[in-house]
Amino acid sequence: ALTSLLPELRGSVDESTNAIDTCRAQIARCETEPAQLRAQYRAMLDKQTAAYDAHLRMSKTYARSSWANVEGNGTEAEKRLARVASLLIDDLEKQKPVTVDDVDKRIKLLDLVANLLDEADDLLDAIIARETNIDDAKNRASEEIGLAQTDIEKAEVYITQNADDLSSDMKRPVANAREHLDDASRELALAQPNYLVVVKKALLANKEADEILALAMSEHERRESLRQQLASTMRLFATSADKSERFISNHSGDVGEDASK
């Protein structure tokens, strides 16, 4: 009877061992992770300063419309960091040494602090990244407008040169591309342009011009192929007719008079 209980007893022992190991790992986490979170919190304070400086530069230099959607990020990040400070100081650092009874509570607090830090990090990163993106757009704006202008002109010339093969509807997409390019140029001419809009409009114009040019080239090549096939067929027909006429001429006595008709 005892022998039959051994597997069950072994299973219970294994479960208990696993539970103890898990509990030890959680206690270890409760003892070590607060220091890691404090270090992350201090790093986040440095990033908060960097984000504040980035926001200040953007507000002085660039159109508000280009950074308005991250304007509230600093305040939201500050709220989360204040909550983190409160949790770290009041709820984690001042608590008694970790015991089995309060492990679950500590783990929940650690997870909460980690989530708040991650959220603050994302909010601050968005501010810093927005300044980088606007700087990049400013540097690219004139070049992107020039590239779009070149591609639109290329499409216009090709469509004009091959107008007989192309539908008049193809002029509409080119006109749309030029409208978007004009929008980009007007935005760039403002005293404080939204460089993100400039680049977005220029890229859209370029894309539209490339697409209609590719469509026009495909249609022209299809028509040209049909013409070549027709010309080839006509040449074959003419060669066949010429051979037939020569045969009839050379064998008029054999094929009869009606064959030459």
Short description:
The protein is mainly alpha-helical. The protein contains six helices and no strands. Helix 2 (73-93) runs antiparallel to helix 3 and helix 3 crosses helix 4 (171-188).
Provide structural commentary.
The chain is mostly helical. The protein has 6 helices and no strands. Helix 1 crosses helix 3, helix 3 packs across helix 5 and helix 4 runs antiparallel to helix 5. The radius of gyration is 38 Å and the shape is elongated. The N and C termini lie far apart (116 Å).
Rg calc: 38 Å
Please give the count of helices: 6
N/C terminus separation: 116 Å
Molecular shape:
elongated
User: Would you report the number of β strands?
Assistant: 0
Query: Element order, helices and strands?
Result: HHHHHH
Provide the residue-averaged pLDDT.
Answer: 83
Structural class: mainly alpha
> For the report, how would you describe the main beta sheet?
none
Query: What percent strand?
Result: under 5%
Q: Segments where pLDDT lies below 50 for 5+ residues? A: none
Specify the helix fraction band: over 70%
